[in-house]
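Design a sequence for this backbone.
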């Protein structure tokens, strides 16, 4: 039962496997057959049985099919046999027809082949023409490129290269000649870059050589424009009468007219031909090089190279020559080169886009300006000639105005000019110090004589002196000497010289007025005052010259107000303005007068000492000569003549000099008596000395200089008079009794002085009176002297202890 059941289950499986074998590809039969062997045992045998049964079924079906179609097959074979004979006949006919056609078509074939060959040639020619038409523009453009390179039209050549690369080469890129051209273009571009850079280097070298010419032209044009504008302004001022107030301004008016005439002449001469920077420099290499690098895409590289080279040139231009300060040409060459450099840069800035920028030029200018200021500050310090400093100032002004016209800030240059102005004033002061010294050396220190009205007018045209009495009759003498008008004229010339530096500094009239007054004050208070003091202290200047110097300083002091008016007329700034600086002439000349007065007192005392040194007293004489000493009479006569000259001095000066002389004479005579080298004095010598003092007192009472009240001048000899009266009268009891009393007769006699003189007389008495001890009167006198000496010593000792 089990085996039958198992057999029933296996049969459907075998049928399925057979169906798969019949329906699938032979390549897949293997797995199907493998499944037969993988099943239950005896499955193979059963499958083979099933397979044989299936084959038998198929054979039966085939046999049925053949039996069904066999009659039709037989009929078909019979038909084919009937047709075979007709087919052979047809074959013979076709073969014959084909032979006849072949024979007849040989000529046609030959002609057809010719036609085909011609058509092929025609097609090839058409193709060649089309290709040539495509290549010809490329070749023409390349030929054009060669011509442009030969003609040095590099920018156009680069544009042609762009067209070749972008338009023409893509059409013929398959051809070999095109590849050669493509490979050659980078070389051409590099050649163009090298050639353009070479042109640029030549251009940079050219502008370096021509910078001074460019700068000179630019500065000349700026100077002409500025001069013409200033001249027109001055002409307008003259027309409105702004500079026509007093006679001093006639010189200024004439100078303004000369400046205007000169400016107009220069303008007419240079109006015909006005050169620009383009006329002096060919900028085409820069344009070409910039365009070339723009096309090549290396514009930034070119800009960096250009700026770097120009900065190097700027450093070279800013480096001055070591001897630049010696001549104005050195400064002019320095300035023209700098101006030429920046004029070129300004032109490049405005005609190119991006090659240089405003920030770049400002940075370059600031660097240059710092260097310029340092150079000018260093080199100008060596300038000792005011004319050279003034020319330097004018060059700096033109330099600044020129560059300011191109948009460069120049305020620092004008600040530098204020420093140079101080140096200019110093050089002027040194120059005028020499001028003043020469004037003083050439002066005769005598009043100026005039014998006619013409001579009088000549003097007052030089110096503002007013004296109605002097105009009435001739000959007359001005109180001052020749140096006064000369100094006054030179002070005005100094003001003009100082004004020259103040011009064109873009400063207001108030500032110019202040500068002129300050520089004039320096001239008066420092230079002129120093020259006067040096003159006063010179050994060869005598009392007469000192008197004349005092008179001269008085008139120069009075002339200071005219100098202030002179400055006012130049600047049109009223002296009543709050901030107007005043001239310090009053203090300057007052100091000089005080110095001269002191020198008068000193020299007068020295002269007195010279006379006193001629004294030759016989200090042991027994009786006086009966007349004053000769040296003293000569001294008094000298003093009389000197004090006669002093009548031209201010009263107080003459009185002070006279009082000082008398006091010094009195002191000298007193010192002569008390000289430590003088050991003995006789009474006869004291009497002779008293005669000399009497002459001094007579001289003092004769009022050698008017203005003394009462016996004021005689009081200079009061110490001597009381001392000599004490010894002449021998009134020692009164002196000792009244000593220290305000009403004492011998109040001015110092005990120490009296003791010194008395001891000298005591020694003389002992020496001259060897036998005095045998005479009672002489013995009593000697005892009296000794007693007085003891009392005076005790008095002096008491004074010392009290002190």
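Sequence:
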């Amino acid at each position: 039962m089990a085996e039958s059941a198992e057999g029933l289950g296996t049969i459907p499986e075998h049928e399925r496997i057979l169906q798969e074998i019949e329906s699938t590809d032979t390549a897949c039969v293997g797995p199907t057959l493998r499944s037969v062997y993988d099943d239950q045992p005896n499955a193979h045998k059963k499958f083979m049985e099933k397979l044989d049964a299936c084959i038998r079924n198929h054979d039966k079906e085939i046999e049925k099919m053949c039996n069904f179609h066999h009659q039709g097959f037989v009929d078909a074979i019979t038909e084919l046999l009937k047709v075979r004979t007709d087919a052979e006949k047809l074959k013979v006919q076709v073969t014959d027809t084909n032979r006849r056609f072949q024979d007849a078509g040989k000529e046609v074939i030959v002609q057809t082949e010719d036609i085909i060959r011609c058509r092929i040639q025609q097609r090839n020619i058409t193709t060649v023409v089309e290709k040539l038409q495509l290549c010809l523009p490329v070749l023409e453009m390349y030929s054009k490129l060669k011509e442009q390179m030969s003609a040095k039209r590099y920018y156009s050549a680069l544009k042609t290269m762009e067209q070749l690369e972008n338009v023409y080469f893509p059409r013929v890129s398959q051809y070999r000649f095109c590849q050669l051209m493509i490979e050659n273009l980078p070389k051409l571009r590099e050649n163009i870059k090298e050639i353009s850079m070479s042109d640029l280097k030549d251009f940079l070298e050219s502008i370096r050589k021509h910078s001074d010419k460019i700068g000179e032209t630019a500065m000349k044009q700026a100077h002409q424009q500025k001069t013409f504008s200033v001249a027109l302004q001055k002409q307008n001022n003259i027309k409105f009468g702004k500079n026509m107030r007093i006679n001093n301004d006639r010189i200024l008016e004439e100078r303004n007219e000369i400046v205007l005439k000169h400016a107009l002449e220069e303008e007419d001469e240079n109006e015909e031909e006005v050169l620009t920077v383009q006329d002096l420099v060919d900028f085409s290499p820069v344009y070409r090089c910039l365009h070339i690098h723009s096309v090549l895409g290396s514009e930034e590289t070119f800009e960096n190279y250009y700026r770097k080279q120009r900065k190097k040139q700027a450093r070279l231009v800013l480096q001055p020559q070591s001897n630049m300060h010696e001549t104005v040409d050195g400064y002019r060459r320095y300035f023209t080169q700098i101006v030429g450099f920046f004029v070129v840069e300004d032109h490049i800035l405005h005609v190119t886009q991006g090659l240089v920028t405003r920030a770049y030029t400002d940075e370059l200018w600031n660097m240059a300006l710092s260097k310029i200021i340092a150079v000018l500050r260093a080199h100008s310090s060596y300038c000792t000639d005011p004319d050279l400093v003034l020319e330097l100032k004018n060059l700096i002004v033109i330099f600044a105005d020129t560059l300011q016209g191109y948009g460069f800030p120049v305020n620092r240059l004008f600040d530098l000019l204020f420093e140079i102005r101080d140096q200019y004033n110093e050089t002027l002061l040194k120059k005028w110090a020499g001028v003043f010294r020469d004037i003083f050396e050439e002066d005769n220190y005598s009043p100026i004589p005039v014998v006619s009205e013409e001579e009088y007018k000549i003097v007052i045209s030089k110096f503002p002196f007013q004296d109605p009495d002097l105009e009435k009759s001739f000959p007359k003498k001005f109180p001052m000497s020749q140096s006064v008008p000369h100094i006054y004229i030179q002070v005005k010339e100094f003001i003009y010289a100082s004004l020259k530096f103040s011009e064109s500094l873009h400063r207001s009239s108030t500032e110019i007025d202040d500068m002129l007054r300050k520089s004039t004050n320096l001239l008066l208070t420092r230079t002129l005052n120093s020259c006067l003091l040096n003159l006063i202290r010179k050994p060869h200047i005598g009392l007469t010259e000192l008197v004349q110097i005092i008179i001269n300083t008085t008139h120069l002091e009075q002339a200071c107000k005219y100098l202030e008016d002179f400055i006012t007329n130049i600047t049109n700034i009223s002296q009543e303005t709050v901030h107007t600086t005043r001239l310090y002439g009053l203090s300057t000349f007052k100091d000089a007068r005080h110095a001269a007065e002191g020198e008068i007192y000193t020299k007068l005392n020295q002269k007195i000492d010279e006379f006193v040194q001629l004294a030759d007293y016989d200090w042991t004489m027994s009786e006086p000569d009966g007349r004053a000493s000769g040296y003293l009479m000569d001294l008094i006569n000298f003093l009389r003549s000197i004090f006669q000259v002093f009548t031209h001095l201010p009263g107080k000066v003459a009185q002070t000099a006279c009082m000082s002389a008398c006091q010094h004479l009195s002191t000298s005579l007193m010192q002569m008596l008390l000289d430590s080298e003088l050991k003995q004095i006789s009474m006869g010598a004291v009497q002779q000395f008293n005669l000399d003092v009497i002459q001094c007192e007579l001289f003092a009472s004769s009022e050698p200089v008017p203005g003394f009240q009462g016996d004021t001048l005689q009081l200079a000899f009061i110490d001597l008079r009381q001392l000599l009266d004490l010894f002449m009268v021998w009134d020692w009891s009164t002196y000792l009794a009244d000593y220290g009393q305000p009403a004492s007769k011998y109040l001015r006699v110092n005990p120490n002085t009296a003791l010194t003189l008395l001891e000298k007389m005591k020694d003389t008495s002992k020496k001259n009176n060897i036998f005095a001890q045998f005479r009672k009167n002489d013995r009593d006198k000697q005892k009296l002297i000794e007693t007085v000496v003891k009392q005076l010593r005790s008095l002096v000792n008491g004074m010392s202890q009290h002190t």
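The longest strand covers residues 449-450.
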